Amino acid sequence: MEHIEKVKEITEDVLKRLEVAGVVTVDMDETGAYRVHIETEETGLLIGFHGRTMESLQVVLGILISKKLESWVKVYVNVGDYREKREEALMHMAVAAAERAVTYGKPVELASLTASERRVVHLTLAGDERVATESVGEGMNRTLVVKPKLS
């Protein structure tokens, strides 16, 4: 808990260097990871296409904070309520893909998802006995496939 203020300072410094005005709040979750929340008028700039900029900011902050604290720490960044809205959209996408897979009896591919987004889809469909999910491919070409289970 004693490092929350330091995490906040580092984040505010990065925003200042990016010339982005915003309010930073930090807390720690039950796993010991720092949750950095940024409220700003420039959400689009910090979030980027499909959250890619936000994910990059998260990586950079994780490195900076870990170096400053001299121990590796996990950092999650959320800008506005992007993560909540994106997770909700991914859950809807997962359910729709499962319905298509079952209805047409064919696999449905979901491309261009980050590892954390694929995880949301896997978890969303884990309880659906009609389908199976699988990540295939490598690197940027990795896609998630929702397949109907053959009965």
From TrEMBL:
Superkingdom classification of source: Bacteria
Pfam short name (any one): R3H
The R3H domain, residue ranges: 84-150
Molecular-function annotations in GO: RNA binding
Signal peptide (residue range): none
SMART domains in the cross-refs: R3H
InterPro entries given in the database record: Jag_KH (IPR038008), KH_dom-like_a/b (IPR015946), KhpB (IPR039247), R3H_dom (IPR001374), R3H_dom_sf (IPR036867), R3H_KhpB (IPR034079)
Protein name stated in the entry: R3H domain-containing protein
Organism: Candidatus Gottesmanbacteria bacterium RIFCSPLOWO2_01_FULL_49_10
